[in-house]
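This part of the workshop introduces the protein records we will be handling. Getting from the letters to the tokens is the skill we practise here. An example says more than a description, so a record of this kind follows:
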Amino acid sequence: MNWEHFKALIWLRWRLWGNRWRRSSDISRVLSVAMTGLTAAGLLGALVGGIAAGWMGLRQADSLVHLITWDIGIGIFLFFWLIGLLTELQRSETLDTAKLMHLPVSLPQLLLLNFASSLVVPSIILLGTGTLGITLGLLLSGPRWVLLGLPVAALVFAVAAWTYQLRGWLSVLMANARRKRAILISIALGSMLLGQLPNLLFNNPWTRHRLERKMAAEFGQMNAEESRAARQARIRAVHRYIPPAWPAYAISGLARGEIAPALATTVGLGLVGVAGLWSAFRQARRLYGQADGRSKRSIAKARVKSDAAARALELPSKPAFNDRVIPWIPAEAGTLALTFLRSHLRATELRIMFASTFFLIVVLFAVYFRRLPSFSTGNGMMAFMLPAAVVMSLIGISQIFLNQFGYDRHGFRSLVLLPTPRRLILLGKNLALFPLAAAIGVLFSLGAAFVTGLGIMGAVAGLSLWLSGFVILSIYGNWLSILIPYRVNPGMLRKGNASLGQTLKHLVAMLGQVTALSPLALTTGVYFIVGRTPLAMVLWIITTLILLTGVVALYWVTLPTMGEFLESREQAILNEVTREVE
């Protein structure tokens, strides 16, 4: 390995960036130029601002200010690092190890070369520039600040090393396109959940009250100065057990005149980074050491799977998932419903929708709904929280209701060729969404009923309201899916070919679904008209059942008309959902 190899690798990365630039649209180019200008301005601002902050701000600040400042800075760095990782994993031109095996270097040298080139990213450059500026500003306060950059550099090395190991592992797993989309979704959702984890742990009524009582008992007998010192000691103690927080802890130690934490942090994070690189090397040797690129373990697993498949052929096979029968449903509609359901369960973009809606439910219930006054306290307005919860659970997944054929893409051609009556196709589409929507909606409705204090009677009303809302949204979604279809790109919820007019129409239609679901809230008015009594609760349940019966009858009456509408527009829908835009 030599300097020419490193320059060639950097040139390849910039060449890939240039290829994406040439294939991008004019708007993307303008945005790229703007981002380049902002990055250059950010580098200059980080250097000048770091010097000013170190000289005028942090030079006289106490250790707690240094701790919080570097916690915020490192948190921002990790956030942008994660965004860059997700962006790189989604690209089809990732420069992985398998594409560099032709270079005349050994495998360890190749790994070090690729790892060194991966460090040339904007997030590291900005962090390094800011750290350099702050160091220059603080050097006038004492020579100990020369060590400031060491813990930060060690953290960057550790994060980059383990990210490199993770990227190599994921590049092998993501050879399959469907698995790649599933991994990207899992990383994105995991990041979202991780970001909400502090809110879930410390901002809920159970943990918050316990912490308040514990802190009152611990700090209640202290004066203000003693309490502040005790809180600072507690914060520093927490930083000792979180590796990304070690640099902030070490720099706060430098502010107190302690050099040992900075040296210990540098050595500790350096060892963590070395472990990451060693793990990446072992992984690469295992993956690329075999002639066909597979490890001995993967070959053995494949052989076991093939033997199991051969034995399974000898056993009597069970009915396929699509061959099952749904009671009281026409056979054609039932088979289509099961087929659509299997497709929904495999579609990555729908996993995004349902998982994000579920996480939203968890956050709302854990943090916000428990703060609301209960129905039992006499606040009758809490009854409206039940239809509000139902509407929220339906709107969270309404995108698939309002564009049922956009996720089929070229598969819609098979529906056009089927001799099945079009009303049964719509019925199968709606039935396929029922179990997925019920998994969220029923949970949300029952949770809202008990959290607001409405009890079992409220749970019955909530289930009835949710079923009514599902049927209403099915009718509205059938009409809108036929009228304004658009293609959804695989693996994401982004519109593939929707024009500006279609986008505006769909936005208006999405606002219209709130009006379509308004009868759910109107049924709650019966409770206030009659009076907040047990009899009023019974009448409320009866009203919701009447509404459910009415919307089911309306659905059944309008289904043949919707089928004829679909048959008249299926060619236009086919042109929209199969048209790809690069």
About this structure: DSSP finds 23 helices and no strands in the chain. The CA atoms of residues 442 and 463 lie 6 Å apart.
